Amino acid sequence: xxxxxGKPPTERTAVAFARIGMSPATLRLLRxxxxxxGDVFSVARVAGIQAAKRTHELIPLCHxxxxxxxxxxxxxxxxxxxxxxxxxRATDRTxxxxxxxxxxxxxxxxxxxxxxxxxxxxxxxxxxxxEKRGGRSGTYRRRK
Length: 144
What we know:
Distance between the termini: 33 Å
CATH architecture: 2-Layer Sandwich
Number of helices: 4
Order of helices and strands: EHHHEEHEE
Strand content: 25-35%
Structural class: alpha+beta
Number of strands: 5
Largest sheet: 5 strands, antiparallel
CATH topology: Alpha-Beta Plaits
Mean pLDDT: 96
């Protein structure tokens, strides 16, 4: 792991994005709440939050971070996709990009899992960092 002991704790924020492509019929079932496994977006939100909190257990060399906030927003984008936007926040010595990205990836995988019985042809991606703030390197924003 990188030694961050000499760095001062600062407010850190990261925003990540993930997309899931699916058939229009699958998206209609999801929106109507007619999938066997239940409320896809509610489960994906919880899964993403849990994943962010456990990032240091999943990704080698990541520091454990005392997260102060994690949000996971899921949205249907007819006719063929779901978009997920996650935000992770902490006051710490290292950034929260990996936590936001892990939340987005696991939330997307959860959507896939809950819909796969009706659509095994779904696609995941891109999964990307949209923005990060705080720390020595300052602010980064993905160009549109």
